[in-house]
Amino acid sequence: QQEPLEEEETAPDVKYDASTVLSESDKPPLGLSNEDSAVLRPPATCQDVSQTSPVLEGTSEPLLTFDEETQNSTEQPLVLVTESAESSPADNRDSAETPSSSFQNTSNNSPTAYTTASSMSNGPSTPNSDTLSASLASNRHFGANSSVPSHSTPSPFDTDCSRKLISQIQRSLSQESLLDELESELLACQLPEGESRGENKGSPPVNGLAADQEGCMVVFEKCVQYKCAQQEKAIQKLLEENKRHQELILGICSEKDSMRDELKKRTETEKQHITIIKKLEGRAEELLKELKESREKLIHQEQTAKAALQQQLKETTYRIEQVNKKCDEARQEKETMVMKYVRGEKEALDLRRDKESLEKRLREALKEVDRQALRGNQLAQEKGRLQQLYDAKEGEVGRLAREGEKLKEEINSHLIKVKWAQNKLKSEADTHKETKDRLRETASKLAQAKEETEQIRKNCQDMIRTYQESEELRSNELDAKLRETKGELEKHKQEQTDQLEMHRVKARELEELKRSYKESMDELETLRTKLKCLEDERPRWEDELTKYREIINRQKAEIGRQRGELEEVTALQDQHQRDKQEIMSLQEEVDGLTSQIADLQRDVLGSREREAELLGFTEKLSSKNALLQSESNALQSQLDQVTNSFTELQGRLEETSRQLDDKSRRLKQEEVLRQQEVQALQEERAALQTEVAKLKTRVEELRDELVTQKRKQAANIKDLTKQLTQARKRLEQVENGGCDRDASSMGSRSSSSGSLNTRHGGSSSVEERSPESQSGPSVMVVDSFPEVDKAVLVERIVRLQKALARKQEKIEFMEDHIKQLVEEIRKKTKIIQSYVLREESGALSSEASDINKAHLSRRGGIMASLYTSHPADSGLTLDLSLEINRKLQAVLEDTLLKNITLKENLQTLGSEIEKLIKQQRPPQDGVRTK
After folding, report:
1. Cα separation of 111 and 371, whole Å?
2. Per-residue confidence band for 381, with pLDDT thresholds at 50, 70 and 90
3. What are phi and psi of 29, to 5 degrees?
4. Whole-number Cα distances in Å, 916 to 700, 788, 919
5. How much is the pTM?
6. Based on the number of CB atoms within 10 Å of its own CB, is 360 exposed (0-12), middle (13-18) or buried (19 or more)?
7. What is the mean pLDDT of residues 53-68?
């Protein structure tokens, strides 16, 4: 019997070691399956656990037992884990060398990294073993799923009084539970013999063992040795993983030694033990009540956990569905945006090609505009040159007018001389009969000369006409070319504006497509990140869901098992009430109650740890939400930056488009102004060309007339001098007794013929070409003139005088009429001036002036205030504006007067030219009729 007692002493030591390990560690929540009930996990209250030192232990062997109920509800033999200084000196050396090595949290280890053990008896498991396995399983679950912080939270019972009370309860309960287990196993072994024999029924065994159970003890010792070998193997694995648990193991070993001493003392004093059991019965009843309350709380917590899990599962499934929908929508939007992007790229390429062609045509148009501007400059230079020529010609015309006045005076003097000659002719008419034949000859010669001069005049007129026609054709060609260039330029401008408008529209569409594509890509990126985060979280949620399901299943199994245990406990309580004298039944009941109390304490601690775990999970969720919020804020800030940059770029684009519009409008204005200037210059050029042609013809005519008049006057003077000399000679001859009559008649005839030639030369502009041909014959044929009829000559002279009087009267009438017309024109000009002054300033202005005013109003300043309804400059006052208006009014009046005077001058010049042409034509007609 000594060997069983020693084994009993070792068995409580082992059981006490397991209970101390569980009491010093944090208790996880209940509800784990029996498959993982014996998993050893690091304690939550201490990260560094010390290993057992052989110096402190001495020669004793710490034994750890773990109970496990398999899935088939079969009990496995007990495995005793031993660690002795003799069997593992290397491990002890390692433990001695590293007494305070830290132990990392084993949350990522798989369940295979832990060592499981089975219970020791083959019979049904006691509540103590089941609760121990459940607590170890909950420890394993908590170590696998919860992360231990660097500074672990202390236990709620971590006070001096609570520690002492819990240690006393655990010592007593662990000792009694170990004794009960050993006795139940021994009774199970001796049950067949006791039933067959019927002996020793009701007699209490000595120290929990019968006297005839030595054979059973041998079998039990072998079983224990076998399980000890298995536990040694398991403890080797555990020692490899738990080398860093030295501090906790040292404390456990010290407590184990003290408890071993106390256990030896209590084995010697069973009576004290029985009294302690009686004292604890009341405590057990209270603990049963607490157990019921804790079970109710556990059921409530289980229901709330189920509801929370179902709600969380629904939320996760709904979120996953939403994310899948968003992912599909994002994928479809991505495909559509890719197609839009491809279309936009194609349109952008087309627009780029159109833009290049438009830029090319714009460059050509600009070159054409430059050429037109150069041509305008050349025309302006030509205008200046023509203006200079016009001024020179105007001076020459003035000079010729003065010479004409001198010639008129000379003509008047000659007319006086002609009158004197006519009077003399009357007195000498009788003497001209002899010169009649000569006069006929001279008349025939004069007719021939007139025909020649007429032919020359026709040739000159043909030349002038051809020159004018060539000039007109040239001007018409220039006008046609100018019209063609204008039409081409307008077409080019229209095409350019259309293409620019199309380019703007395409550019806006391209910008909108780019913006929409960028927004869709940003949304797609955000959806991708969200989807990635949700996909990353999905396996974790699924793992947690499976773990919670396993926990629920384990809790259900544990609840069913505990219900069965509760029924067994009630049956045992009934049996204890019937057989109060049987100590074993009372011990079993007390052991069950103590194990339930320990389980309840573990459940309380586990529930608190679950609360802490849930708090940690909520903290993780809050941190995750904060992280997502910060990411969303960062994305929002990036989006704000992108929108700000987009608005800035859009403002720049609008500014550039506005500048482009201003440039194009200015270009159009410049082109319109240049066209107007070109038209004005062309009109002025045409007017000047016509005026120059008229003036040239007039100058040539006046010059030719002057030359002819000079020649005629010289010829007349020569003729008259010759006639005078001849007359003097004849007078001398008459005085000397010669033929006075013939000489006088000859002189009178020659003078009359000279006077006739003079009148014909003054009226005709064609006979001036050949004055010598007229004077020559008159001189040469003085002696050969036949006698002239005086009546004919007198009639002709009278007729000519009447015609001259009529012309003078007509000239006087025309001068009076011209004066009246000039006065009427002046009156009308005054009326027009007053009417124009009464009109508004912008009524008669051109479009170019309106454009110039709009440009000035945009530029700002004093002039902008004049052309707008509101003052654009603060420096503009009422006095200043009135002064500006007065000056502008003076300038306007001055320009109007200049224009009116220029118009009057042009009208008078045209009327004078027309009058001179009309005066030139009637004598020629008279010559033609003769």
Report:
1. 94
2. confident
3. -70, 155
4. 13, 36, 5
5. 0.18
6. exposed
7. 38
- 397: left (phi > 0), else alpha (psi -120 to 50), else beta? alpha
CA dihedral for 306, 308, 314, 316, sign (positive or negative): negative
Domain ranges of the chain: 1-268, 346-520+671-788, 796-929
DSSP state of 435: B
Provide CB contacts within 8 A for 50, sequence distance 6+.
95, 99, 100, 245, 246, 247, 248, 249, 250, 251
Quote the CA–CA distance of 389 and 385 in Å, as a whole number.
6
Neighbours of 451 (CB within 10 A): 10
What residue type is assigned to position 801 of the chain?
Q
Cα 292 from Cα 598, distance rounded (Å):
14
Annotate 64-79 with DSSP letters as a single string: B----B-TT--BPPP-
- Phi first, then psi, for residue 596 (nearest 5°) are -65, -40
What is the DSSP code (8-state) at residue 49?
Answer: B
Instruction: Tell me the per-residue pLDDT of 413-447, one tens digit each, with 9 for 90 and over.
Output: 777 877 776 676 676 666 656 666 676 776 777 77
Do 757 and 440 contact (CB within 8 A), yes or no? no
Across the range 133-159, mean pLDDT stands at 42
Instruction: Find tokens 């505990």 and name the residue.
Output: 562
Instruction: Render the burial of 118-127: b for 16+ CB within 10 Å, e for the rest.
Output: bbbbeebbbb
Characterize 244-278 residue by residue with b for buried, 16 or more Cβ atoms within 10 angstroms of its Cβ, and e for exposed.
Answer: bbbbbbbebbebbbebbeebeebbeeeeebeeebe
Phi, psi of 43 (to 5 degrees): -70, 150
**Angle separating helix axes 771-780 and 436-578, nearest 10 degrees:** 180
pLDDT digits (tens, 9 = 90+) for 902-929: 888 888 888 888 888 888 775 555 545 4
Q: pLDDT per residue over 825-871, tens digit each?
A: 888 888 877 776 766 655 556 677 777 777 777 776 666 666 666 66
Look at 891 and 159; give whichever has higher pLDDT. 891
CB atoms within 10 A of CB 910: 13
Distance CA 301, CA 608 (A): 12
d(CA 530, CA 624): 13
Q: Which residue has the higher pLDDT, 90 or 700?
A: 700
Inter-residue contact 292 to 569 (CB < 8 Å):
no
CA-nearest of 822, 692, 712 to 764 is 712
Structure tokens, 920:
């030139």
Provide the CB-side half-sphere exposure for 719 (13 A, CA).
31
Phi/psi of residue 50, nearest 5 degrees: -95, 150
> In a 10 Å sphere around its CB, with 0-12 CB exposed, 13-18 middle and 19+ buried, how is residue 427 labelled?
exposed
What long-range pairs does 485-489 form, CB within 8 A, spacing at least 24? 485/368, 485/372, 486/675, 488/368, 489/365, 489/368, 489/369, 489/372, 489/671
Confidence of residue 515 (pLDDT cuts 50, 70, 90): confident
> Within 13 Å, how many C-alpha atoms sit on residue 513's CB side?
19
The per-type count for the chain, helices as H runs and strands as E runs, is: 16, 0
* Residue corresponding to tokens 């079969």: 74
Helix (H, G, I), strand (E, B) or coil at 62: coil
SS (H, E, C) 757-821: HHHHHHHCCCHHHCHHHHHHHHHHCCCCCECCCHHHHHHHHHHHHHHHHHHHHHHHHHHHHHHHH
Residues paired with 50 in a beta bridge: 246
**Nearest to 541, CA basis, from 319, 728, 751:** 319
- pLDDT reading at 564 higher than 60: yes
Instruction: Say what the pLDDT of residue 841 is.
Output: 56
Tell me the DSSP string of 91-102.
Answer: HHHHHHH-TT--
Per the structure block, which two tokens stand in for 359? 């830029």
Question: Angle 563-567-571 (CA atoms, 0-180°, nearest 5)?
Answer: 165
